[in-house]
Model the fold of this input.
Amino acid sequence: MYQAFSTTLTAIALFFAMLVLLEVGRRVGNKRLASDPEGARAGTGAVEGAVFALLGLLIAFTFSGAASRFDARRDLVVQESNAIGTAYLRLDLLPANTQPAMREMFRQYLDARLNVYRLLPDLEAAYAALGTANDMQKDIWNAALADGQQTGAMPDAIKLLLPALNEMFDIASSRTMAAQMHPPTVIYGLLYLMALASALLAGYGMSGGRSRSWLHVIAFPAVMAIAVFIIIDIEYPRLGLIKVDSFDKALVDLRAGMD
Done:
């Protein structure tokens, strides 16, 4: 749960930083109004509009990107389940005496693939399980080549089984890369910077009143902190509070059907 804790801490830090900058902006605005009542607000609308527009675009793009990657990772789980299931069924094309050993290799391979994601957020253990699964891919491929050429194999056993194995391995690689695909850190840095800048400008815009509007003072940084928290949590669905683990049920059900 380290990622969830880190994301929560980041959101809380952003909330309080924006609160501070709202107050700073308000005091700067009050001083400016006291010294130049007529010109204190001249030209500020264009700057505020540009900053808030850019902030809105950053939130929209980062959220949209995180959501699309989240959906892609869920789809890859289903695709891998279908690919493994197809390859497993095509083992019927091999000689009957070689099928039990191949089916056992498939069961061990699927166990290793499930462990890759079950062991998260323990990255070291997850990488060890990934290495085991990758090593088994070579064993399965070599065994399929040898068994497909034995007497008793169907005529098109190799032609049908090897493409299925290739797809099964390709999707496994795609899932590994998809799990590591995230926006550059500078994007999040710019998002935080624009949130802080907007808080400063918002505080300046709220200057001049006799008292603070606590509803706006609290709501603005709270909404921003929640939005940032959700964006980051969706971006790391195996490590935070938002999960794609429910989609692993497709692989779990497939594994149960292999017994």
